[in-house]
Every structure is written in structure tokens, then in C-alpha cells.
Known about the structure:
Blueprint: E1 5-8, E2 23-26, H1 52-61, E3 65-71, H2 82-99, E4 107-111, H3 127-137, E5 149-150, E6 175-178, H4 181-189, E7 193-196
Parallel strand pairs: 2-3, 2-6, 3-4, 6-7
Antiparallel strand pairs: 1-4, 1-5
Bound molecules: magnesium ion (MG) and zinc ion.
Amino acid sequence: xxxxxxxxxxxxxxxxxxxxxxxxxxxxxxxxxxxxxxxxxxxxxxxxxxxxxxxxxxxxxxxxxxxxxxxxxxxxxxxxxxxxxxxxxxxxxxxxxxxxxxxxxxxxxxxxxxxxxxxxxxxxxxxxxxxxxxxxxxxxxxxxxxxxxxxxxxxxxxxxxxxxxxxxxxxxxxxxxxxxxxxxxxxxxxxxxxxxxxxxxxxxxxxxxxxxxxxxxxxxxxxx
Length: 224
Ligand SMILES: [Mg+2]
Ligand SMILES: [Zn+2]
């Protein structure tokens, strides 16, 4: 299967707020909702972590684009398909907006692949983040008109050289929140400020740090 799978719904900033130009890249399981070693397979299995909607709302009120980036290998394992993924994500959006009316996701991007598929979107590869940057901020963006689309990412989204220095981000406030080193690696590869959270607590663990423009995030090296 090609990929990643893109659900594109940009905008919906709170009234009086405009984009600050930055993207908050947010992992899903263990950051927004409680994860599971056997995956989240149905909308009914979603359990939102405490205060996660408020943190997303706070970022949106500051003008961040919110882009969820999630590895979901059960798709390529054949457990379920992208239609099921869409239902899970519609429920996730609904639960977030119920708790905070500003907690809107501009994009949800999913890598459906397994490690052995050797794609450029599975984190720690930065393909999903680079695609979000392209679609939200480039002068010549890849476009989509459907609620969910499988987009092929090509040679412009090459795998990164993990041994070089961390690059400068496209926007100095770009940030990534995740619960695993694979998340940190993907964020590192696009130069984002990095915030690692315990999977049992999720994004509220860094609720004050992510809205502090002076906070440089966590130290991280992908080769340690
Ligand atoms: Mg996670
Ligand atoms: Zn992938």
C-alpha cells in the first residue's frame, strides 16, 4: 500500500486568532489518547488522556497548526482498513471538540506501514512531518479535495542523515510532542522543539512548556 494516509482539514482558528506560521506535530497514542499494545481498533476503544483537549485548544489559540502524526501498522498487517481509521479519527475529533471547542486538528497523517515496508513515512522517518509542512506552508503545496486521501510521497522526502547536526526548523516555534524516541527522531529531523511525555499522562505533562515560546524543548540525539 502507498501512503501515508492524509485527512486534511486546515484552518478553524478561534475567532480573533490567525496562524502564527508554526506547526505542532503531535503523536496520537500515549499523547492524546490512552494507547494499547494491541492497537486502537475501533472508535469505542478511544479513551482521551486528561486535559489533552485543553492543551490542543491552547496551542490553537496561539495560532499553531495542529498536525497529528501516527504510525498505525495494523493497516498493513491487514487488521482493518483506512475506512476504519477514518471512523476512529472522526470520533477522536468529536471527543476533543466536546471538551474544548478550539481543539481542532488541521491534519491527521497516518503511516499504515510496517517496519519491513521500508517507507519514508514511518517514524522516526520524517516523511509525514515534511508532507504536513508542504501541504500547510509551501507556496506550491500538494493539494487534496477529499476527506481522506492516500498520498504517495516521493524522492523529495528522503530519509535523513541521522549523524549530522539538528537542522533549523521551517519556523522557530515548530514543536513535536510524543511518547517514544521514534517520535523524537522524526521531530529532530525537521528541527522541531521536542517534548517527550509519559504515555500514561500524555500531552498535559508539558501543558505549560509547549505554550512557552522561549522553551527550547528536550535535549535529544537520534544516535545515542
Ligand atoms: Mg505514541
Ligand atoms: Zn509509512
